[in-house]
Amino acid sequence: MATYNRIKAVLALKKVKNDQLAEAIGVSSGAVSTWCRNFKQPSIEKLYAIARFLNVEATALLSPMSEVNE
What we know:
This protein is mainly α and about 70 residues long. It has helices at about 5-15, 20-25, 30-35, 45-55. It is about 50% helix and about 0% strand.
């Protein structure tokens, strides 16, 4: 499975739970879970909302292309 984002890692680093992020950006905790497991990817708008909530650059949420396994 490809790994496109680092949302799960950044949530752990910031000590934020999936449901806290979900509530803050107006999505279900299930949506956050699918992003964390890389089953689906957030839209660009949601990616920026996540970055704002976590107080990080949006690029901090993305895996470097060299690490993307397809």
